[in-house]
Amino acid sequence: MSGHLFLTMPAASYCLLSGILIAAAGPQASSIDATSADESVSAQSADDGTTLPDAESSETGTPEDLSRWEYSTEIDLPAADTASQTDGPGKDLIDFFLVSDVFAHATPDLADLRIHSASGLAIPYALRILEPKSVRDVVPAIEFNRNEPENDVHELTLDLQRDDIDHNEVTIDTTGASFRRPVVIEGSNDAKDWKPLASGNIVRFPAEKEPFQIQSFSYSNSRHRYVRIQINPDPLAGDIVNGIDNFSITSAEVIQHLELPGESVTMNTVLGTREPTRQFGVPASRWIVNLEGDNIPCNRFEVDVKDAEFARDVSLESEYVNSQGQSRFGSMGVYGTWQRLRGDAVEPMFLEFSEARAKRLRITVADYRNKPLSLTAVRVTSPARQIIFERPPQSELPLRLYLGNPEAEPANYDFARNLPEKLTAKPVRATLKAAEINPEFIPTPKAFTERFPWLVYVTLSAVSIVLGTVVVGLSRTAILNHDSSIAEQSEKLIA
Question: Which of 8, 205, 340, 404 has the largest count of CB atoms under 10 Å?
Fold first, then answer.
């Protein structure tokens, strides 16, 4: 009897819970099962090597579904007649800088940005972060007129096959372990009339860890199509054995070495009211600075201070959300001293640091026994995020920038990878209008537990009731069995 009850009660509770879940899910439960079945079939099709009918194929150029992007903004292009008419890289290029609206709604890595025309055509673009950097590009060249004598001048000529690109460096790789040889580098437009570009010594000496060597030679920007390299014998004859020079040129490259200065953008902020506090055990003041957007990049914090004379220690914090969903400020490891002597020019105070992304910052100034500083304005600066693309036909306008799709993969357009670092003409500047909700946006269906959060509590309550019923039933059965056993023992004793 008790064993039968123990088996049937859990079975009844399972049936009850199943009924609750199915009733709560309603007609959507069947659609979830159907979706799972479709995913299983799709996965099997992919394993079999067949083409999925719904998959986006880069080979066929299937357009992306723009209903997955939550926001969009119109790109305001300048008139077509102001576009660059220069041939080569830079022709008819448009660019614009990303603004706070984009950072607030796009993914942190900006991989979800897409540009589409009025007809839905995807416009390839290049995204660049305009921070100062050094770029060394190898200029393609064809080698000819190689001459490697046994004990004379080694010579090699490179044909760049074009005369419209600047070059300013030659790198030479050679055999040999210890030498110092004079080098002469010349340029020509016709491979007949040669003009000097650079001279020096190519050097290699052995050392403990790695050899000391000089194998690169710089010169002023040149557009000569032909570059000739001549390497003279070592005056000390270190590589000559039995009258034979074992030295040879392995390879040579012509380099375009660029120092790109970068470009920054400065954004205004909203400065909060002063709050008295303590820092490192001394009286201090702090202000919260609203950057007016999420994930705003910044690497420079600039403040206008009204006071004529001061010397204060300052620190900067950024806002974050902890695991409980609470907003907190944490140290960025950014500290400094702001100082202005009486009579100094009134210039902004600033802090510079490795780039960070934030929605709000908090600046704290140690006052000690001094009067609190009077801050009047705050700005943040970061390297500009530049979008570059080719101007489409007038019939494809207007263009829109789509953003706000966490599931989007990086576009990695060929256009971006082939666009040279240095453009021959400056792109024409466009601007972005305010971001707005994409009218075609269809939210991703929420998970079952997110659609019915109350179901968790209902289920737990039902389980508690069922388990309570089971426990009460088992307790009663145990008591009855115990009483019956005692009664039977008593009757046997009396008998």
Answer: 404
